[in-house]
Amino acid sequence: MKNVILIGYRCTGKSTAGKKLAERLARPFFDTDNLIARQSGTTILEIVKEGGWELFKRKEKDVIQSLSHEKNAVIAAGGGTFDDKENRDMMKKNGLFICLTGDVNTLVKRMSHDKKSPHLRPPLTSDDIYRETTRILNKRTPIYRQIAHYTVDTSERTNDEVVDEIYSIVIKNKELSWQEIQ
Hints:
Blueprint: E1 3-7, H1 14-25, E2 29-31, H2 32-40, H3 44-67, E3 74-76, H4 85-92, E4 95-101, H5 104-113, H6 117-120, H7 129-147, E5 150-153, H8 159-174, H9 178-181
Parallel strand pairs: 1-3, 1-4, 2-3, 4-5
Helix pairs in contact: 1-8, 2-3, 3-4, 5-7
């Protein structure tokens, strides 16, 4: 069975849904940002402060390389992981990509209410949170669309509703050959 790879912007629910989905499917769960932080012994914010986004991206590529050999896992990828074509190519061989989306207002609201966000998630630009979210979404959405096999909108939905939809997609795809969904 292929990996289920959840992609999308910050606060679309990849980690939360991924954990619940992995439990439901009895599969291992990996969160790329958590793996990077754990392997580095520090937070992503500290990694970026220390060596910039370039250092973070090098560490991210190492994690993606190791996860590309996993089978039958649920993986929550960082929002910008697949800006890098090499990362896309490594994971594409063995993954069903499901993009979690949300409207800008919902995502900004979630980020604003997430107490951990300021300590763990460094800003991506010097813009305010709304402008930054809009700008980065405009840049990344075409990439997400290009690689996603399915898209699930998480706006105004509970975690359980999101997990139920993803679960249905995964179960449906067990019945198809891998070539049929590529």
